[in-house]
Design brief:
The complex is a heterodimer of chains A (487) and B (486). Chain A contains 15 helices and 16 strands. Chain A is an alpha+beta fold and 487 residues long. Chain A has 3 domains: 4-294, no CATH class; 307-417, no CATH class; 426-486, Arc Repressor Mutant, subunit A (Orthogonal Bundle). In chain A, strands 1, 5, 6, 9, 10, 11, 12, 13 and 14 form a 9-stranded mixed sheet that branches. A 3-stranded antiparallel sheet of chain A has the order 4-3-15, with no helix packed on it. In chain B, helix 5 runs parallel beside helix 6 (178-184). Classes of the chains: A alpha+beta (487), B alpha/beta (486).
């Protein structure tokens, strides 16, 4: 076999469920796991004579997301009907946007392995209504639950700019963070708020010649893991298939596959792309949307700093590690909380440690976000300042934070109650150091001998001081006294 | 039954001179006698109607206020959803369909204390010009029971003509109120697109459909329009009243339009039968005697209206009717082999021939590769036609034409030739494409004693003026008082 080299190309379609108060074209509330067909009305049931009315909040959420993805928001956009028959689609057409989407020509930046940023182009983003769900649990019959029908979905389509499964995952996660930051989606994967459909193929170079493998669309992936694994699987499958058959991309040989979570493999759904004719045409029941400058500016004013730029700023401005910056900016509530504590006088690194080592762990365990734990940003700042002023040790601060969450008491009260205030009293520490020196003559000798042993002996003696004070000696003050006495 | 208008009846009921219950019983007695011949109704609600009438009488006796249509017996075309009875669209596919809600216009009628007599027959899904396409029953013309009442709102116009109700609602997508009104000798108004909420009107051609009154007089027409007009938050295509205010259409109804300029397109009337042409000429002469002047107008794109209409309307219909699939409601084929058959067989069994023809036509027009050549081109023609009217109305207040090229034709006469049937709407169709209002008023009879209608058209949202123009003629003539001898 000759030497082959390959490059993978992935474009992604992402469906994001918006967290609007009501459905896309009617007044029904959005629902999850409710009694089947309990959140429905004549409009989302597609009853004869019913008419859709556009949900303005959904349009504004979509505009906001479009702006965050650096898209143009055209001044004129409209609604189109996409026709296909399926039992979960009550009108047998879906109200969507065809040739004039609400947002287009944007990009999203993701960090790459080598630390640089990569721009993934966004082709378009448009709004549409979701379908219901078919249930096949009633023996000979299938049932349809239309609670989900009419839920607003933002469909985001990227260019095929991603070249690894990790990049695809990176983009998906970044997008999840962005829509959550904007407050336009809960983006809860478990509830199917984000669904992915990657288009994957390879460019293979063999003996100086390039070949493109047929494009495969993997349908309806609803976890990052499935997304990443399905692409990795496709890479090897497409490579094998090419080496075996030599088949390359042609008109009409795009196929559709699904992901089997158990087999950890993609499985063929449709061999050839059927000549689907959705017979798109403008929905005569809805008026087009005209976006004037005033409205657009109003939406722009709702934009916030996005997770990526916040992450970079934390590294640059606060000197945090890439990892810590990532953890803190993952959710907007955490980042906002962090910044507020810093504003109240907490040292960034100190606050970061308190939040990442204790706060987020407790929040995770309780399934809440950091603002819901109890202590507010002022409490955290005070706690950090107590460490900064050497009133307590960093370790003590962590224990105090745990207690604050448990008891709801303030940091100072707890420090006293738990006897964690550091001893900085020179006189008292002086006495203790003297005792330690008296009890450890060998170590004093070792120190005085100099060389390698000297440093070790000093550390040992300082350790003894800390032990004698049960860790409450201010290490800085104790060291100073010790050094003076040893000199 | 003595002839009296809806307004007259309402006034007498309000004054306590006639009991609403008596008027209601009288109508149902008449229905019992005449309906077996006419076949105007798909369903009637006698018990419910009498109960409502009793309640209205009680309120009047107690001196409580009653609505604008207190005790007026109204029939509604069975393409309007009602939470009571069935909403069939005269189709087998919805023969047993019970809508879970009332159309906005039905709510408005009920809020005005109208009494719903029943739901009237029509062409299946309002597709047709003779009511012969009903999948459920046949309606005849009260003036000659061997002839069609016109369509698609033929049940509503026949009911008004035969005195089975005092007023009715119809829907008009290409002439479906005006043409049967003309053929039955009653008044029928298609309001401007967006004037009346379409919420609850089962859609045929969504960008063309409009609900309107069918009455014995122009005055009754204004009365009903007063009740049903206005913006509806549930219909995005209903017009904001800040942009196009709703008037009290009765207020200035009797004020003639001074210096009325009537637009006439020479050649336009040429296709009509001689007797129809003569009646129209006579009507125009009446207006001239009232001081109106005639203005020659040019409608260069009028000839393309039927072609454009059958692209736009069928395209929209093909999409609107995809929801009737046997899955969620309506007729479902009894023994499907798989879910695809639920669709194909339910639809094959449930829809009639003309509906299938239009679904196929519209599906074809929207198919990829044909969209630009058919649907998009039709939209362009539509814009040109709209422009023709805008230019014409710069020179005149209204345009007058025949409603239908012929008087009522014989049952079965055109059923084998859909194109010939489509031509019955030649004068009405352009009006829906342009979205402007149009009214049909009785203007004479042919030698077979069949009614002839005059069509008057006016600019968008000028129903107040249109009704005043129609009223000018009504006051001079008594065609509207002539009733069939059924």
């Amino acid at each position: 076999m000759s030497n082959v080299d390959y490059k993978i190309l992935v474009g992604l379609e992402i469906h994001v469920q918006l967290c609007t108060r009501t459905k896309m074209f009617c007044g029904c509330a959005l629902s999850f796991a409710e009694e089947p067909n309990s959140r429905v009305c004549p409009v989302c049931l597609g009853m004869p004579g019913s008419l859709p009315v556009m949900n303005k909040q959904a349009v504004e959420f979509a505009m906001l997301a479009g702006l965050a993805l650096n898209c143009q928001i055209p001044a004129f956009t409209k609604w189109d009907r996409k026709s296909y028959y399926y039992p979960d689609l009550p009108k047998n057409y879906q109200i969507s946007q065809y040739d004039l989407p609400l947002a287009l020509n944007g990009y999203i930046e993701i960090p790459t392995k080598d630390g640089t940023m990569k721009k993934i182009r966004i082709r378009r983003a448009h709004l549409q209504e979701d379908a219901g769900k078919n249930l096949h649990t009633a023996g000979n019959f299938s049932q349809v639950d239309l609670n989900r029908a009419g839920t607003p979905l933002l469909e985001i389509v990227t260019e095929p700019d991603m070249n690894s499964a990790a990049e695809v995952r990176g983009l998906a996660e970044e997008l999840q963070r962005i829509v959550r930051y904007l407050g336009v989606s809960e983006a809860d994967m478990q509830k199917g708020h984000m669904r992915f459909e990657p288009n994957v193929n390879l460019i293979i170079t063999r003996a100086g010649q390039q070949f493109k493998t047929p494009i495969v669309e993997v349908k309806n992936l609803n976890s990052f893991r499935a997304l990443e694994n399905s692409i990795d699987y496709e890479i090897s499958r497409q490579l094998d298939q090419f080496l075996e058959t030599g088949e390359t991309m042609e008109m009409g040989n795009k196929s559709t596959r699904g992901w089997d979570d158990v087999k950890e493999a993609t499985v063929l759904q449709r061999e050839k792309e059927e000549a689907h004719d959705y017979r798109y045409f403008p929905d005569p029941d809805l008026v087009p949307v005209e976006v004037n400058e005033q409205w657009l500016n109003e939406i722009k004013s709702r934009l916030c700093e996005l997770p990526l730029s916040r992450r970079l700023r934390y590294i640059k401005e606060y000197g945090l590690s890439e990892y810590d910056a990532g953890v803190l900016t993952n959710e907007r509530a955490t980042a906002d909380f962090f910044e507020e504590a810093v504003k109240k006088g907490g040292e960034p690194k100190r606050v970061c440690n308190l939040l990442t080592q204790v706060g987020l762990k407790l929040a995770n365990a309780r399934g809440c976000n950091i603002t819901e734990l109890g202590p507010n940003a002022c409490d955290i700042a005070q706690l950090a300042k107590m460490v900064q002023n050497s009133e307590i040790s960093a370790t003590a601060a962590n224990s105090i934070l745990e207690e604050m969450v448990k008891t709801g008491k303030g940091p100072r009260e707890l420090a006293q109650q738990l006897n964690l205030i550091q001893k900085s009293d020179v006189g008292e520490l002086d006495k203790i150091v003297d005792e330690v020196l008296k009890d450890n003559l060998q170590a004093v000798e070792d120190f005085k001998a100099g060389g390698k042993k000297s440093g070790k002996a000093r550390g040992f003696l300082l350790g003894q001081v800390m032990q004698k004070t049960k860790g409450r000696a201010n290490p800085k003050v104790a060291a100073e006294i010790l050094d003076k006495k040893l000199a | 039954m003595d002839w009296q208008s809806a307004k007259h009846l309402r006034n007498k009921i309000r004054a306590g001179e006639i009991k609403s219950v008596e008027a209601t019983k009288a109508v149902f007695e008449h229905i019992a006698k005449v309906e077996p011949i006419v076949g105007a109704f798909i369903s009637t609600f006698e018990e419910q109607a009498i109960a409502r009438a009793q309640e209205i009488d009680k309120r009047i006796a107690a001196g409580e206020p009653v609505g604008q249509l207190a005790g007026v017996l109204v029939a509604i075309k069975d393409v309007l959803c009602t939470s009571f009875g069935t909403t069939t669209c005269a189709s087998k596919i919805l023969a047993n369909f019970h809508a879970p809600y009332n159309a906005t216009v039905v709510e408005k009628l009920l809020a005005a204390d109208a009494i719903i007599v029943g739901k009237t027959n029509c062409d299946e899904f309002a597709m047709g010009s003779s009511t012969e396409n009903s999948g459920l029953k046949q309606t005849v013309n009260p003036w000659d029971t061997k002839r069609v009442p016109g369509g698609s709102s033929g049940g509503s116009t026949a009911a008004v003509a035969a005195g089975l109700c005092y007023a009715a609602l119809g829907s008009d997508t290409g002439g479906s109120i005006r043409q049967p009104a003309s053929l039955c000798g009653v008044v029928g108004l298609k309001p401007t697109y967006g004037r009346v909420s379409r919420y609850g009107l089962v859609a045929y051609g969504s960008s063309l459909d409009q609900i309107g009154p069918i009455t014995q007089t122009v005055e009754d027409c204004a009365l009903i329009l007063n009740v049903i007009a206005g913006h509806d938050p549930a219909d995005s295509t209903s017009v904001d009243e800040k942009i196009a205010p709703v008037s009290d259409y009765l207020e200035k109804l009797d004020e003639p339009v001074k210096g009325l300029r009537i637009g006439i397109a020479s050649g336009l009337n040429a296709g009509a039968d001689e007797q129809v042409r003569k009646a129209i000429d006579e009507a125009i002469k009446t207006y001239r005697n009232l001081g109106a002047s005639l203005i020659e107008i040019d409608m260069p794109h009028f000839d393309y209206a039927i072609a454009a209409y059958y692209m736009v309307a069928t395209a929209e219909a093909s999409s609107n009717l995809t929801r009737y699939d046997g899955v969620h409601y309506g007729h479902r084929t009894p023994n499907p082999n798989d879910y695809i058959e639920v669709y194909t067989k339910s639809r094959a069994e449930g829809f009639g021939k003309e509906v299938k023809r239009r679904i196929m036509l519209g599906t074809y027009a929207l198919s990829s590769g044909y969209y630009d050549a058919y649907y998009l081109k039709a939209l362009k023609v539509r814009n040109l036609i709209r422009g023709d009217f805008v230019r014409a109305f710069e020179k005149c207040d209204c345009i007058m034409t025949p409603v239908s090229p012929t008087t009522a034709f014989k049952i079965g006469e055109k059923t084998d030739d859909p194109l010939k049937m489509y031509l019955s709407d030649i004068y009405t169709i352009a009006v829906n494409l342009a979205g402007i209002p149009g009214i049909s008023i009785p203007c004479g009879f042919d030698d077979k004693n069949l009614p002839i209608g005059l069509q008057i058209l006016s600019p968008a949202f000028s129903e107040d003026k249109l009704l005043r123009i129609a009223r000018m003629y009504e006051k001079q003539t008594d065609w509207h008082k002539k009733r069939p001898l059924i």
